[in-house]
Amino acid sequence: MKKLLLPVLFLCIATGLMAQANRVEVSFDYTKQSGVGSNQFAVWIEDAQGQYLKTLYATKFTANGGWKKRKQSLPSWVKQSKISEMEEDQADAITGTTPGGGSLSYIWDGTDSAGQALPGGEYRILVEATLRMGNRVLYTAVIRLGEGGQITPQPQYFGSGKKERGMIGNVTVTY
């Protein structure tokens, strides 16, 4: 019995360490905006070639069909995720109501949308937010899964509105 217990214990520890090595945390400050056409955001993962792998979070309005009503809502995520091809239960699994504000954090466990573990290597972490109607922001961080580090990606703004730019800030990716 003791001979069997030691390898099982070693395997559990090794598996736990590997899971920690592939843990990626995406955190940012979110300040809810007033008015129509804002407060939509998504966090997702792509491979090094820009192929969609998994959504960590998307606001419910956009993911549940709001992208049809408001074409400017998260256009990069809508295109990459192919939300139009997802079943309702698939969309529900990645969505949540828009938070009230504060510091938010989303964890990626190194798996794709089917739950399959991905190999170490280069991946892109993206955070997109619709600030107001056609105004949006996109943060992109390139990481190496399996290596440790922290990145503070810089925002890329689209549209002319500057007033809403405080909606998403202090984006940090820790891996």
Q: Tally the helices: what do you get?
A: 4
Could you describe the largest sheet, including whether it forms a barrel?
Answer: 6 strands, mixed
Kindly report the oligomeric state of this protein: single chain
- Number of DSSP strand runs: 10
What string gives the helices and strands in order? HEEEHHHEEEEEEE
* Head-to-tail CA distance between termini: 38 Å
- Helix percent reads 25-40%
Please list the strands of the largest sheet in the order they lie side by side: 4-3-2-6-7-9
Task: Extract low-pLDDT stretches.
Answer: 4-19
Q: Any idea what the shape is?
A: globular
Structural class comes to: alpha+beta
Radius of gyration: 18 Å
Range of strand content: 35-45%
Quick check: average pLDDT? 88
Describe this structure in a few short sentences.
With 175 residues, this protein is α+β, with helices and mostly antiparallel strands.
Structure description:
A hairpin with a 4-residue loop joins strand 2 (40-47) and strand 3. The longest helix is centred in the N-terminal third of the chain and has 20 residues, at 2-21. The protein is α+β, with helices and mostly antiparallel strands and 175 residues long. It contains four helices and ten strands. The protein is 25% helix and 40% strand. The strands form two sheets. Strands 4-3-2-6-7-9 form a six-stranded mixed sheet. A four-stranded antiparallel sheet has the order 5-1-10-8, with no helix packed on it. The N and C termini lie far apart (38 Å).
Describe the secondary-structure layout.
Blueprint: H1 2-21, E1 24-31, E2 40-47, E3 52-59, H2 60-69, H3 75-81, H4 88-94, E4 95-96, E5 101-108, E6 121-132, E7 135-145, E8 150-151, E9 155-158, E10 168-174
Parallel strand pairs: 3-4
Antiparallel strand pairs: 1-5, 1-10, 2-3, 2-6, 6-7, 7-9, 8-10
